[in-house]
Amino acid sequence: MTQHRIAVIPGDGIGREVVPAGLEALEATASRFGLGLEFDTFDFASAEYWQRHGTMLPSDWEETLRGYDAIYFGAVGWPEVVPDHVSLWGSLLQFRRTFDQYVNLRPCRLLPGVRGPLAGREPGDIDFIVVRENTEGEYSSIGGRIFEGTERETVLQETVMTRVGVDRVLRFAYEQAARRPKNHLTSATKSNGISITMPYWDERVAAMQGQFPGVRVDKFHIDALVANFVLHPDWFDVVVASNLFGDILSDLGPACTGTLGLAPSANINPERDHPSLFEPVHGSAPDIAGRGIANPVGQIWCGSMMLDHLGHPEAAAHLLGAIEDVLAYGPTEAPLTPDLQGKGTTAELGQAIADRVRTRDQANA
Ligand code: NAD
Ligand code: IPM
Ligand code: MN
């Protein structure tokens, strides 16, 4: 039996509610496909850990997590207790950088049975992936404050683009585009206004184009791109973006497909020198936390991405198929959560998907 060790970090808020649903679906899939998944759950990267220890992570976190094949993560952030930039730079952003998870892969698909906000759009009309640069760009710790408390008070935060950093994420995106049926890559830029880093990004996109002659490439300034996500989501196949632009696009995309609660993300170290991390796109959602109504689908879909990454594409497809089947039953037949116009709870929807994993025909996977 293939054995994988998975570190589970539920984090804060709805992270703690959707992770158990994700684990139930993963366990059902593992038993169906004869996979040995061993889960160890950690309480760090949470506001409660911060309250107890005054830090987000134990000093040996890197050594601890390095021993796992993957990290299954919920969400972190509880601004009432710890400022967001402190909790995020003290945990998730550390994981991404230390483990060189330089690709953040965020699929975006309008699924059968789900009502999106865009009129006239059918499943198949929206089916793209956002490839987000995940370790540099606008998320840099270079900068600071000077002349604090005076009229000359100045704050500065630099954007960093390295050739290695830009090229490696572009290559990943080109490879994805080369593999998908539409062979289409869209680059998010803002080289009309951000006059140093963004023209560099465009140059590197153009420099790589010759290596992928089968891929059609276009670029949009980010302002026009967000408009086109809403007006023409069918135009997109693979969208590659810098860290901040990718962050924004990967919330907007899922919103166009119905709800943020559906969206998964894979923080990948493609070289597999370090564990990759699988988490939903959404955060800890303090506005609905504790009510048991969070949509667990994004978290469960992450489990499918994790199985794929661990070398089990059939199990991954089976789990995704179970999600699709249950969503397709619609809110009257399945216990869909309120963001999907249903009356179900997190646990009920998680259970329905795990049950479907057990019963659905494997050949349909
Ligand atoms: P959020 O994603 O938590 O919530 C945005 C909105 O979407 C809220 O109205 C929320 O109720 C809704 N929503 C999110 N997930 C949902 C789900 N599964 N089902 C139903 N509705 C869902 O974003 P926010 O409010 O900006 O951030 C809240 C906290 O989470 C902050 O501390 C933020 O820093 C943190 N955050 C963490 C991550 C992460 O861990 N990867 C990602 C985003 C935000
Ligand atoms: C995400 C989140 C994080 C990001 C925050 C919480 C730092 O929004 O994973 O999309 O901006 O990367
Ligand atoms: Mn985000």
From TrEMBL:
EC number: 1.1.1.83
InterPro entries xref list: ICDH/IPMDH (IPR050501), IsoCit/isopropylmalate_DH_CS (IPR019818), IsoPropMal-DH-like_dom (IPR024084), TTC_DH (IPR011829)
Domain of life assignment: Bacteria
Positions of the Isopropylmalate dehydrogenase-like domain: 5-353
Leading EC class: oxidoreductase
Classification via PROSITE patterns: IDH_IMDH
Gene3D superfamilies with a match to the protein in the record: Isopropylmalate Dehydrogenase
Keywords: Manganese, Metal-binding, NAD, Oxidoreductase
Catalytic activity: (R)-malate + NAD(+) = pyruvate + CO2 + NADH
GO MF annotation list: tartrate dehydrogenase activity
Family the entry assigns: Belongs to the isocitrate and isopropylmalate dehydrogenases family.
Name of the protein in its database record: D-malate dehydrogenase (decarboxylating)
Record organism: Paractinoplanes aksuensis
